[in-house]
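Sequence, please.
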């Protein structure tokens, strides 16, 4: 089940790739997973729909879009379509023979274990109808002169019983009966052999070959014709009037209800409804307080449109989900998945450069290459905290413009370093050992400059720069270290 606060459709697709999602959604994803809570709670194996759930959707929640069509017709019981109490097969199993639950209609109760079509289809109902059923379901008792057991099948009785009109032996529903029950019972009572319905006045003259109301002997034909005469609005209440429904459940049920097709087309109808439902109708707007990426992604999926082939922009439907996923990377940009970075530092500076491109995801690689190839040190390096330190002076030099009036790019770091001089790192001084190296000396020439200082600096210069504290005598003042050593070596032995 999708965690609270998440979108059911997006949660179930999270493990699929963009390429496989559209196929998997019809082949593998269960209807319950698309609908979300409570339909995606597959640990609840009860046939009884929980509070707030619609009986029909609860019955088909374990099917996929692909296999739903046949299963609705051949596996889903009439009771599951009708809902409580007919769908409660736990407290009232199929072989239940006790008293009817409160508010249950006897006829619908007797039909609840049948499917719409198939081996256990509703057309088989008449084949199993017994004298007991005639009495308990239709309220018709045989005359005492006809002595037959309760288990005798109605189809084996005489013509006198067979010719009773169905509308005469089934009582009209009470005013207190729910609307769906009224619809179904009245359809059974007033359905005619040509598929129309009409309330008899008692003055009809039926000639041979004319459409007629069904008689008891025709109940098998009646039950065969019944599914194709019942419409969605016969077996469903208007979802717009049901305050317990909300979200995708209400949207889906309303669309099914509005088609008002017959129930034999229910499987196709549900499948078509799913295919034609707009994405923005089944994915709710992001919850208040949702993180930036979730909010942005959901909004993009809900609002993305495409050309309908006639120059008009059209929202995507669930049936076009594959196309949506294919188009999504081109529609999503960096600014959809990344908030504008704030703060300081190299990472933030680089992210801001990337964010500013607002590149689409399918062009991200190209844009990233462009960004990184054009990054300058001025882009990524902040002003140094201490500009008088070696590091500070190095940063200032990298952030500065070159001789062409352009900022150094990161990719040009070797060329930039080649312009560095000793003075860029160490300010000019009149004393100390660093004062012996010319400030204009390029960094790559500093080792040679140090070598030159060692070999060419005189004692007088060392004294003048404060590197020695004793003034040299005049005869050695202009000597270098090598010359001093040679001078000492030539002194007479003591």
């Amino acid at each position: 089940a999708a965690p609270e606060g998440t979108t059911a459709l997006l949660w179930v697709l999270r493990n699929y790739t963009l390429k496989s999602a559209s196929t998997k959604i019809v082949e593998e994803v269960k209807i319950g997973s698309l609908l979300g809570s409570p339909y995606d709670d597959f640990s609840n194996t009860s046939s009884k729909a929980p509070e707030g759930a619609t009986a029909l959707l609860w019955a088909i929640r374990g099917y996929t879009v692909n296999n739903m069509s046949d299963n609705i017709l051949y596996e889903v019981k009439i009771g599951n379509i009708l809902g409580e109490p007919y769908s409660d097969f736990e407290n009232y199993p199929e072989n239940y023979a006790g008293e009817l639950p409160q508010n249950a209609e006897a006829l619908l109760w007797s039909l609840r274990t049948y499917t719409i079509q198939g081996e256990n289809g509703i057309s088989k109902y008449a084949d199993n109808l017994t004298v007991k059923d005639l009495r308990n379901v239709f309220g018709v008792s045989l005359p005492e002169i006809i002595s037959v057991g309760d288990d005798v099948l109605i189809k084996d009785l005489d013509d006198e019983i067979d010719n009773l009109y169905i509308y005469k032996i089934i009582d009209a529903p009470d005013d207190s009966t729910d609307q769906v029950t009224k619809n179904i019972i009245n359809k059974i009572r007033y359905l005619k052999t040509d598929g129309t319905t009409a309330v008899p006045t008692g003055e009809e003259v039926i000639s041979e070959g004319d459409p007629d109301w069904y008689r008891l002997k025709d109940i098998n034909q009646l039950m065969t014709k019944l599914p194709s005469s019942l419409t969605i609005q016969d077996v469903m209440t208007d979802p717009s009037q049901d305050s317990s429904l909300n979200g995708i459940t209400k949207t889906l049920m309303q669309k099914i209800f509005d088609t008002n097709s017959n129930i034999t087309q229910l499987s196709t109808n549900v499948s078509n409804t799913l295919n034609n439902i707009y994405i923005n109708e089944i994915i709710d707007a992001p919850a208040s307080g949702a993180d930036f990426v979730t909010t942005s992604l959901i909004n993009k999926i809900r609002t993305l449109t495409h050309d309908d082939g006639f120059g008009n922009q059209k929202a995507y439907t669930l049936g076009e989900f594959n196309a949506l996923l294919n188009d999504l990377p081109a529609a999503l940009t960096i600014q959809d998945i990344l908030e504008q970075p704030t703060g300081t530092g190299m990472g933030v500076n680089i992210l801001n450069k990337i964010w500013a491109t607002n590149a689409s995801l399918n062009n991200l690689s190209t844009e990233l290459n462009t960004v990184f190839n054009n990054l300058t040190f001025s882009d990524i390096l902040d002003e140094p905290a201490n500009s008088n330190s070696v590091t500070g002076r190095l940063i200032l030099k990298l952030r500065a413009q070159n001789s062409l009036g352009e900022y150094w790019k990161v990719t040009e770091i070797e060329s930039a370093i080649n312009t560095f001089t000793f003075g860029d790192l160490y300010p000019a001084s009149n004393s100390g050992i660093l004062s012996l190296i010319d400030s204009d000396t390029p960094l790559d020439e500093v080792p040679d400059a140090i070598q030159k200082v060692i070999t060419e600096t005189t004692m007088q210069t060392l004294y003048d720069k404060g590197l020695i504290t004793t003034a040299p005598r005049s005869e050695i003042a202009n000597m270098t270290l090598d010359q001093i050593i040679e001078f000492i070596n030539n002194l007479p032995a003591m």
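The beta strands are 305-307, 313-315.
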